[in-house]
Design goal:
alpha+beta, 6 helices, elongated
Amino acid sequence: MDIQTKDSEIFQQLIDKGLLSSEETSRVRRLLEEGSYSLPTVIFKNSFERKIDILDIISQEYSVPCIDLHQVDPDLDILKKIPARYAIHYNCFPFKEEDGILHVAIEN
């Protein structure tokens, strides 16, 4: 299944579950039709009343966990594992290390 089809299915779920107002639905539909952005990017970069609920559904559908970095207390040693210039360039944030695996949050 391609990303556009997956985004369309998830978008319909959001509408069916009442997570988007009619104004939000129109805005998302317009941005998706322009084809410049994926559904997760549209949601992430815009303000929506139920953004966290929406991101949780997208996260489940794509099997990628959604992390609220406002609730993360990063270890300074972990932050040093990725050079700042790379973190800024790739818009990523190392937030924990578990069993030798570095967990990195990335935008979108």
